[in-house]
Automatic annotation (TrEMBL):
ATP binds at K42. It comes from Streblomastix strix. The keyword Nucleotide-binding applies. InterPro entries: Kinase-like_dom_sf, Prot_kinase_dom, Protein_kinase_ATP_BS. This is Protein kinase domain-containing protein. SUPFAM superfamilies: Protein kinase-like (PK-like) (SSF56112). Gene3D superfamilies: Transferase(Phosphotransferase) domain 1. The keyword Iron does not apply. One of its GO terms (molecular function) is protein kinase activity. Keywords: ATP-binding, Nucleotide-binding. Residues 14-116 form the Protein kinase domain.
Amino acid sequence: MEQERRRLLQEQGFQVLATLGKGAFGHVYQVQKEGLGIIAAKVMNEEEFDIREWRAGFQLTQDADNPFLLKYNSTQMFGIITVILMEFANIGNLDSIIEAKKDIPLPIIRVIMKQI
């Protein structure tokens, strides 16, 4: 299944740079495509995708003045697979930040707290 997800992204013109995460609701990849640059692509099965939840999230992220929200670019459906394209954040997930046990500058803490 992992190879199928990667192949689907490649067929859509994306270069898969890295796997960012795997969870109950799909896999997230760091991808690159001309015209879009480096972004994140979340690939999930159709039954795990809630269109109402996505629309609400998309609407919330369209506030261009809020630097604390990741922007959703689009969603595409390919048969039973859904791909959500979103802004790439290189900070990782909260668990990885906590496990690193490094001092985090206050401005970064503010950004993280704003997203929680």
